[in-house]
Backbone:
């Protein structure tokens, strides 16, 4: 069994965060909110970056205890073919979306790397920004993704508690804790420009997971110092008949975690999805969260033909249209930002840039 | 025990001394002794028979526990710095080199481009490269990337005594660095050295503040105490600063009452 | 006699002088110096045998005070 890396277990840098997360700490939630809001305003201004998820396929080989798409679930499986993808993209663009997150399950024969790469290629032709949340890949695979126009990947460790992780990921490639842990580093090494991290709150002790998550972000920031970093806060909801999270995180606790992360990581993008209610998202906008998904469909496809798509990966709680959502932002004096990237910036990051590149002056056209 | 690790060398003292501006060599040596410094920087100069007392090599070698860190002051280009480093290593036998390239003799600000180039070459040649730089967080990471042993950002201009004018930048450098950060230049008082250590610096380099003091050995001792205090405080964990004000209408009202 | 450039100035030494002879002439009695001739470092163990040539550019360097 490989040892846990030092950066994960070393608590010296995370002591301040730990103090803020401690519910018995002297910092009231309101005082954390004030500080978090001030830092967010200073660094990010009055803006909210927007994106939407597109599930390419719900085929999955893994057995995650908590997921509606686990391979032993009876969910009908489907994947989008290239024409399907183009239709979905057209529908999404009509809603104003230009920044998309492509999702698949764990690697399967039906939705493998080549499928993902082709899908990225199609999406990059239509969208201003393409991110991917899929299975762990090799450095070479990430480089190929970057070459095709993917500039960010999201990969949640789910939980940094190894025992809990191994119990929850019952079979399939996702069972390997260390491989998953090393994935964001591989992505950045391969030239992906931004890595998005997170834990699925509710699976394990949230305080412990939050500290580990912070350490992961700090380690990646020091190692890949040119890289962009973002943190998401997906929270498991208790679901009847579904998986019951053993460590449910209530609204106040989630807020404390978000504020503490903003204070501890003033420059990192913090993301909240449509798992959360409209009221919660509106409340958190401007207090720490800087990026949100909108118009989310968590079924495969779902933008082109909203009625006909089966059960999603999770229930969407904020089902407002982009229009309604933007009005809500503007009412809070926050500008919704649909485009925060340009494909001119696509391509792999130059990770080992130790040679100075002399600039040859080009004649102006 | 809390050692400063530089290459394969471990030091118990986190105060590094410069040897310039002292009234004479005897005072300088007294100051070095009083400071407890184990790493001392020296410059390469032309031999001059009229000034035999300029030579510090023998007297410094006679002090126990001292490792020399020659510097490349006088060099204006990477090529000159590399040449000076090679000569200095040959003479001293020490792998340490402080890369110091300041082309402007008034403000003595370091040239980042020549410094980077010199460090890139010297690191490949096996030196323990310690570059003197402005407090530039990106330059610091680039130098770490090419194999420097530490980075030495200035607190303020050499001899200016303006203290930690670059504190905000130093904080970023310290936070993001995987190698020791050694504040060099501009420290005027022991309290500033303590503050630098409290911020998380690996060590500080002090020259002018000690050399021009009325009593350099006493001042050197004071700096040693300050560096020690600052380091102990950093290790013990300082109380977090609170800058919170209280809002008039609560931002968290939307969460409702806590369940 | 040979004419050398020593530390930027003219220096005359007898024909056939080795580096150690030059060091005696200028008053560097111990080996606390670096010797560079025409951009090549001359190590201490080579100084008694290394012969000086007409027009050699010689630099003799010490460690002096400096931050």
Residues:
């Amino acid at each position: 069994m490989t040892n846990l890396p030092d950066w994960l277990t070393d608590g010296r840098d995370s002591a301040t965060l730990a103090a803020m997360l401690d519910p018995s700490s002297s910092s009231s939630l309101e005082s954390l909110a004030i500080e978090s809001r001030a830092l967010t305003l200073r660094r990010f201004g009055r803006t909210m970056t927007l994106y939407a998820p597109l599930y390419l396929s719900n085929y999955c080989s893994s057995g995650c205890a908590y997921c509606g798409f686990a391979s032993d679930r009876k969910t009908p499986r489907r994947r989008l073919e290239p024409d399907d993808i183009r239709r979905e993209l057209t529908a999404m663009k009509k809603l104003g979306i230009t920044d998309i997150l492509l999702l698949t399950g764990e690697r399967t024969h039906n939705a493998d790397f080549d499928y993902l790469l082709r899908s990225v290629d199609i999406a990059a032709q239509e969208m201003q920004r393409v991110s991917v949340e899929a299975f762990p890949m090799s450095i070479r695979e990430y480089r190929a993704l970057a070459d095709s126009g993917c500039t960010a990947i999201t990969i949640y460790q789910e939980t940094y508690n190894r025992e809990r992780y191994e119990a929850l990921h019952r079979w399939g490639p996702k069972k390997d804790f260390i491989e998953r842990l090393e994935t964001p580093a591989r992505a950045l090494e391969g030239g992906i420009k931004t890595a998005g991290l997170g834990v699925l709150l509710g699976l394990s002790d949230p305080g412990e997971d939050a500290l580990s998550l912070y350490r992961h972000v700090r380690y990646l920031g020091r190692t890949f110092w040119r890289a962009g970093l973002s943190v998401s806060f997906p929270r498991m909801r208790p679901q009847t008949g579904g998986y019951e999270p053993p460590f449910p995180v209530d609204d106040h606790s989630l807020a404390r975690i978000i504020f503490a992360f903003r204070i501890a990581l003033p420059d990192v993008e913090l993301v909240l999805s449509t798992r959360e209610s409209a009221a919660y998202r509106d409340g958190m906008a401007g207090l720490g969260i800087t990026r949100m998904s909108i118009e989310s469909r968590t079924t495969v496809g779902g933008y082109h033909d909203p009625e006909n798509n089966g059960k999603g990966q999770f229930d969407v709680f904020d089902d407002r249209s982009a229009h309604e959502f933007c009005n809500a932002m503007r009412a809070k004096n926050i500008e919704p930002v649909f485009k925060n990237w340009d494909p001119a910036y696509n391509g792999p990051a130059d990770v080992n840039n130790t040679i100075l590149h002399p600039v040859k002056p080009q004649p102006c056209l | 025990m809390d050692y400063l690790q530089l290459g394969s060398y471990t030091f118990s003292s986190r105060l590094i001394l410069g040897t310039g501006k002292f009234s004479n060599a005897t005072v300088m040596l007294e100051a070095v002794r009083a400071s407890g410094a184990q790493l001392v920087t020296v410059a390469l100069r032309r031999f001059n028979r009229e000034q035999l007392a300029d030579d510090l090599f023998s007297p410094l070698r006679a002090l126990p526990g001292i490792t020399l860190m020659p510097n490349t002051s006088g060099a204006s280009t990477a090529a000159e710095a590399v040449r000076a480093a090679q000569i200095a290593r040959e003479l001293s036998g020490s792998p340490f080199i402080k890369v110091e390239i300041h082309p402007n003799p008034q403000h003595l600000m370091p040239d980042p481009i020549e410094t980077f180039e010199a460090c890139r070459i010297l690191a490949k040649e096996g030196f323990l490269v310690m570059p003197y730089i402005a407090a530039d967080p990106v330059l610091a990471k680039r130098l770490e990337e090419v194999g420097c042993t530490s980075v030495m950002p200035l607190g303020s201009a050499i001899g200016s005594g303006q203290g930690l004018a670059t504190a905000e930048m130093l904080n970023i450098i310290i936070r993001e660095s995987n190698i020791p950060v050694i504040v060099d230049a501009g420290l005027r008082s022991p309290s500033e050295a303590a503050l630098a250590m409290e911020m998380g610096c690996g060590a500080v380099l002090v020259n002018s503040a000690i050399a021009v003091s009325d009593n350099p050995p006493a001042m050197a001792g004071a700096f040693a105490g300050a560096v020690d205090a600052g380091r102990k405080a950093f290790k013990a964990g300082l109380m977090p600063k609170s800058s919170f004000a209280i809002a008039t209408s609560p931002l968290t009202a939307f969460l409702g009452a806590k369940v | 006699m040979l004419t050398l450039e020593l530390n930027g100035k003219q220096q005359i030494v007898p024909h056939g002088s080795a580096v150690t002879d030059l060091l005696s002439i200028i008053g560097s009695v111990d080996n606390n110096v670096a010797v560079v001739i025409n951009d090549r470092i001359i190590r201490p163990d080579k100084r008694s045998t290394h012969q000086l040539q007409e027009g050699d550019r010689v630099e003799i360097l010490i460690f002096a005070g400096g931050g």
